């Protein structure tokens, strides 16, 4: 998939598109507020737009320009094919058609498609496929249609910082849509993008540790990770130290720890103790939109440093490495809990059990517990895997959880449970958190529940849960408190919405829908997510907020939902470091005028 046919045909395909493109009257040379002088005029649904340059436009770079870029990046520029292309006789791409069928490669991609790490190692795959438009999934029918959908057109497999610089400069100078990708571990489609050039940073795998990092704002143990490092890699390195150490990561081991995770905040099982991953960052090395290498810490580019810590993915710079605080690992314990139709067949009793379980959210986080749970998608199912007690014996953990079990027993609801103790949190992390799957297509939303919402409005919260389930969605919950043990003096040092410090439960909502569904079906699903599913949660939990990495980017008042009172400062920083609109990710600071028009394809500024 990564070489061979793609490498051989790259030049020919680029030449073909150039030959088809002639200058035309669609050119715009000036858009107020932006420096680029190459724009494409479009009209969509009665409004006028100035769009970035895409294949077939007069301003799409000519062959010699692409050749120069390819030489600059060491031959690592490639034409992109969607993962499923080897299962089809022909890939019909925007730069030309390619005969792609390969039985062995088709078998490999079919087997690997549900596997997160398989997709991560592909150069442009999105782990969840809705925003790719699903126009080339693996198939057993090679005569079917395979098109690019919303996957990017070309990609650079960056091996050096200079390669990233070259890609940024090329995209800026030619006003191309630019996408930054590490793992593709993204619910909102930010790792793909119609007509875009991708810079893939996954090869940046350096990890170094120290017991005495000494820099602005921090002196102590730290780990420095390259842009491509994933959670399981960083945690394994830290566990190999004597004594072992840990860092804040997401609950999913395959997520990258130096890209969108920290720029969105980064919550996980250790959030009760150390806050978000962003709260533990002490220094970034980045490349800004002007192509310059920058250091950002508490003293140097301190405004950029603040914005990179939770201010929005792909909004301010491309991260090449980050330094984080590390912490001593400790013995930990975990408990699993399941209620399902095999243990309880009464829906009314089931919902009463959910209400009892969720009423303990403040109790759990106040005792330092992290709880990962799912409500649905199977009806009458509550799957709690796991309840985590960091630095707790199993007896201590059971003492905190026992009141919940007593209440369930008093209700007469059936359940199953198991528990285990581990020598380190690292061991628990590897043993108790379940493997996640890739390749599914769905819309993702979500909301958080504030402490006061649980105290004052809990009945309405569970009513909202029922609305979510009845609307064909399901819930993934994460009970934690980012303000539990992190000193209040640290809260404002990151760009994270201040309301998150009083959150006790962060919810993901999921509405399954095929990426290649008819437009009317997509519109209905989006309306259901925004106005019914998440609308019910927003109404029931007015003290909550929305987490940019796991949320509906099209929700109302997203600026306030994602960043609250921090938004205006973030907007100013965005304008300072990216005045030309080089970077784009949906619903991030400064993107109010940007839209993906023509059924989610062209990226444009509304005039």
Question: What does this protein look like?
Answer:
With 607 residues, the chain is an alpha+beta fold. The strands form 6 sheets. A 7-stranded antiparallel β-sheet has the order 21-18-20-19-23-24-22. The protein has a 5-stranded antiparallel β-sheet with strand order 1-2-3-26-25. The chain is built from 19 helices and 26 strands. Helix 10 (347-359) packs antiparallel against helix 12, helix 10 packs antiparallel against helix 14 and helix 14 runs antiparallel to helix 16. 31% of the residues lie in helices and 24% in strands. A hairpin with a 6-residue loop joins strand 19 and strand 20.
Structure keywords:
26 strands, alpha+beta, 7-stranded antiparallel sheet, 607 residues, 5-stranded antiparallel sheet, globular, disordered N terminus, 19 helices, single chain, 24% strand
């Amino acid at each position: 998939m990564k070489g061979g046919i793609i490498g051989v045909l790259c030049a020919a395909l680029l030449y073909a598109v150039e030959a088809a493109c002639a200058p035309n009257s669609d050119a715009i040379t000036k858009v107020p507020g932006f420096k680029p002088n190459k724009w494409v005029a479009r009209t969509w649904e009665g409004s006028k737009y100035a769009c970035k340059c895409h294949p077939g436009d007069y301003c799409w770079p000519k062959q010699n320009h692409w050749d120069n870029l390819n030489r600059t990046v060491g031959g690592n520029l490639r034409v992109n094919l969607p993962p499923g292309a080897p299962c089809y006789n022909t890939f019909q791409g925007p730069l030309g058609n390619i005969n792609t069928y390969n039985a062995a490669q088709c078998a490999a991609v079919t087997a690997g498609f549900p596997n997160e790490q398989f997709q991560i190692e592909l150069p442009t795959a999105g782990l969840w496929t809705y925003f790719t438009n699903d126009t080339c999934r693996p198939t057993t029918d090679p005569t079917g249609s395979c098109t690019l959908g919303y996957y990017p057109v070309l990609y650079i497999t960056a091996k050096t910082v200079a390669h990233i610089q070259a890609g940024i400069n090329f995209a800026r100078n030619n006003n191309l849509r630019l996408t930054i990708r590490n793992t593709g571990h993204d619910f909102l489609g930010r790792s793909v993008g119609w007509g875009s050039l991708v810079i893939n940073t996954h090869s940046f795998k350096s990890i170094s540790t120290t017991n005495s990092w000494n820099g602005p704002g921090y002196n102590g143990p730290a780990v420095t990770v390259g842009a491509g490092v994933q959670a399981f890699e960083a945690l394994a390195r830290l566990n190999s130290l004597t004594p072992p150490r840990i860092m804040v990561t997401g609950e999913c081991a395959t997520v990258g720890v130096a890209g969108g995770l920290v720029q969105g905040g980064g919550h996980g099982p250790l959030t009760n103790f150390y806050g978000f991953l962003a709260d533990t960052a002490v220094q970034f090395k980045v490349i800004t939109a002007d192509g310059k290498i920058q250091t950002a810490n508490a003293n140097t580019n301190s405004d950029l440093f603040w914005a990179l810590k939770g201010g929005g993915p792909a909004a301010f710079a491309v991260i090449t490495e980050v330094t984080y605080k590390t912490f001593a690992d400790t013995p930990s314990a975990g408990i699993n809990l399941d209620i399902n139709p095999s243990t309880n067949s009464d829906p009314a009793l089931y919902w009463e059990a959910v209400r009892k379980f969720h009423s303990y959210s403040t109790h759990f986080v106040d005792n330092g517990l992290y709880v990962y749970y799912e409500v649905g998608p199977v009806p009458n199912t509550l799957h709690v895997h796991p309840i985590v007690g960091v630095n707790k014996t199993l007896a201590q953990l059971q003492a905190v959880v026992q009141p919940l079990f007593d209440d369930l027993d008093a209700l007469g609801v059936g359940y199953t449970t198991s528990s285990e103790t581990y020598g380190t949190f690292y061991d628990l992390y590897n043993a108790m958190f379940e493997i996640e799957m890739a390749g599914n297509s769905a819309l993702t939303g979500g909301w958080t529940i504030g402490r006061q919402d649980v105290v004052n409005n809990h009945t309405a919260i569970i009513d909202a849960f029922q609305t979510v389930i009845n609307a064909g969605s399901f819930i993934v919950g994460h009970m934690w408190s980012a303000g539990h043990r992190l000193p209040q003096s640290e809260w404002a040092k990151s760009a994270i919405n201040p309301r998150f410090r009083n959150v006790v439960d962060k919810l993901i909502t999921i509405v399954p829908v095929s990426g290649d569904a008819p437009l009317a079906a997509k519109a209905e699903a989006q309306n259901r997510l925004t106005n019914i599913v998440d609308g019910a949660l927003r109404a029931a939990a007015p003290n909550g907020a929305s987490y940019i990495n796991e949320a509906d980017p099209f929700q109302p008042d997203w600026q306030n939902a994602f960043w609250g009172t921090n938004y205006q400062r973030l907007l100013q920083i965005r304008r300072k470091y990216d005045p030309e609109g080089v970077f784009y990710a949906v619903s991030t600071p400064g993107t109010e005028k940007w839209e993906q028009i023509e059924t989610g394809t062209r990226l444009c500024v509304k005039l």
